[in-house]
Fold this sequence. Notes:
Elements: E1 2-3, H1 14-25, H2 36-56, E2 63-66, H3 69-83, E3 90-94, H4 99-110, E4 114-118, H5 128-134, E5 139-143, H6 157-166, E6 172-176, H7 188-191, E7 195-199, E8 210-214, H8 241-254, H9 258-276, E9 282-284, E10 293-298, H10 303-311, E11 315-316, H11 330-334, H12 339-343, E12 345-349, H13 356-376
Parallel strand pairs: 1-11, 3-4, 3-5, 5-6, 6-7
Antiparallel strand pairs: 2-8, 7-8, 9-10, 10-12
Helix pairs in contact: 1-8, 2-8, 3-4, 5-6, 9-13
Amino acid sequence: MHYLDHAATTPVSSAVAQAVAQALTESFGNPSSQYPLGMAARNLVQESRETVAQALGVAPERLFFTSCGTEGDNWAIRAALHQNRHVGRHIITTAVEHSAVLEPCRSLAAQGYEVTYLKPDKTGHITAQQVLDALREDTALVSVMLVNNETGCIFPVEEIARSMKAAGSRALLHCDAVQGFLKVPCTPAAWGVDLMSISAHKIGGPKGIGALYIAPTLPHPQPLILGGGQEMGLRSGTEPTGQLAGFAAAVKLRFPRWQADAAYMAELKAYARQRLTAIDGLVTVGAGEAPHILSISLRGYPSGNVVTDLGSQGICISAGSACHRGKASHVVSALGLDKRTAAGVLRISFGPENTREDIDALYEALLAHRQQRFAML
C-alpha cells in the first residue's frame, strides 16, 4: 500500500499503540478515585497534559483535553463569544476554514450573529490586512486556521494576533491548528493567540482525542460539559486515559524531530511536484507552503473517479478534505478555479514514513488513469 493521505489521518506506530494498551490494561483506574490505582491514572492524565503542553509551548493548566479537533473548534467559538458577549455579535473567519468552524458560524448566523467570511486570493492565501480591514467595534471573535487542510497554505496567525493587538481590538483570536501542529511553527502563547485547537490523529496518535489551549485572557471560560468537574471543571466526564497516553506518546515521538521531519516532507513534496507535473494536463493548485500537503488537479478528470481507481490499486490519496465525502469542496470553490481544473482537484499529503517510491507509484497510476480515460474518448 502507498498511503499518501496523512492530512486525513495518520498511521499509529507500535510504540503509540503499546502506550494505549498499557494505559488500558495497567492504569485502568478512574482518575477521580482516591486509591493508588486511581492516583496512578490521575498521574498519567497530568503527565500527558504536560507533554502536549510543552510541545505547544503553553502552561499545562491552560490546556484542556477534548475528543477531537472539531470539538475543540466548537468549544473555542462558544467560549469566546460567551466571554465577549458584551462586546458584540460580529465574527470574522475565512471562507476556507474547516467545516468544524464554518458550520458553527452558520448556526450562529441563524441566531442573529453577523459573520464576515474572508476570501483567499487565487493562491489560497489570507492576509493580516484583510482581518484588520474587517474588524469592527462589535467584533467578538476572529477564527483563522494555521494551515489549510486542502491547499496547505499557511495563514499569518502570528501577524494577525499582533495586528489585532496594535489596533486595540477587543476581539478574541481562535486558531484551528489541527493541520499545523508539529508540522510548522505553532506557539499560541508566544504569538498572543487566545484559543488554539489541535488533534492527536494528525500526528500519529489515536483518534478520539484532541486538546484546546485557552489563554489567561479567558480567566473563566465557559464550560463545555457540566458534571463531575473533570478538566478543571470545564469538561466533565471520566478521562479517556488510553487515548491520552497515545496522544502523549505520539507527541514524544514527533516533537523532538518535527523540524527534521518537516524538512524531509518538504523534499518529498518538491519531488512530487516535479514528477507529477510532467503528466500532461496535471497542474498544481494554490501555493501552499506547508511541507506535508500538495494540491494538484488532473484537469478534466473527475477527482472522485481518480481516487476510486487509485484506491483499488492500493494508492491512497484524497479528493480534497476527507470530510467532504464526495461533495464539492468549499475551498476549491473559493479559489475561483475553472470548471475543468476544479473537477480534477486531488490532495496528496505526506508523512515521515513516505518515500520517493510512494510518489513514483502515484505517478505511474495517474499516468495510466489518464491514458486509459483518453483512449476511451
